[in-house]
From TrEMBL:
This is Nucleoside diphosphate kinase. The gene is ndk. GO terms for biological process: CTP biosynthetic process; GTP biosynthetic process; UTP biosynthetic process. GO terms for molecular function: ATP binding; metal ion binding; nucleoside diphosphate kinase activity. It comes from Paenibacillus pinisoli. The active site is at H116 (pros-phosphohistidine intermediate). Pfam families: NDK (PF00334). NCBIfam families: PRK00668.1. Belongs to the NDK family. The lineage of its organism: Bacteria, Bacillati, Bacillota, Bacilli, Bacillales. HAMAP family: NDP_kinase (MF_00451). Homotetramer.
Length: 137
């Protein structure tokens, strides 16, 4: 069944010029890019996005990182878009991510791990609404 996923290339991925390479992987997989925007994340959006991690010792560092430069926010659509996006992205820690995944191929750091993908259809909806205004999709 066709569904929507929220995927975001984080500031390190944008800074390193990986947007084209990453979008290419989603398109080759057969997923469709239906909306994309290079944008800054303000502190309020960052704190909401990472609200589930607010008690972690690295929370402040995480908010600083995600607000440190533009991100490339995307709505990806297709069959099983959420699970398929996460398979393309790979595990959170790039050191444990297999080669062939985006984090496995392009990351080294558990914090600055290049990309985010929503972990459920429900969270994708919340994240899309957080990052894109209703008129935009
Ligand atoms: P994401 O939401 O970005 O796709 O990441 P995830 O589900 O794979 O992982 P989650 O546990 O939700 O962590 C969110 C982001 O926090 C940063 N992180 N830093 N310093 C650390 O030990 C640490 N652990 C996690 C990463 O940027 C991770 O993607």
């Amino acid at each position: 069944m066709s569904e929507k996923a929220f995927v975001m290339i984080k500031p390190d991925g944008v800074e390193r010029g990986l947007i084209g390479e990453i979008v290419n992987r989603f398109e080759k997989k057969g997923l469709k890019l239906v909306r994309a925007e290079l944008k800054s994340v303000d502190r309020a959006v960052a704190e909401a996005h990472y609200g589930h991690l607010r008690h972690k010792p690295f929370f402040e560092e995480l908010v600083e990182y995600i607000t440190s430069g533009p991100v490339f926010a995307m709505i990806i659509e297709g069959a099983g878009a959420v699970q398929n996006s996460r398979s393309l992205i790979g595990p959170t820690n790039p050191a444990e991510a297999p080669p062939g995944t985006i984090r496995g191929d392009f990351g080294l750091d558990v914090a600055a791990n290049v990309i985010h993908g929503s972990d459920s259809v429900d969270n994708a909806k919340v994240e899309i609404e957080r990052f894109f205004s209703k008129l935009d999709y």
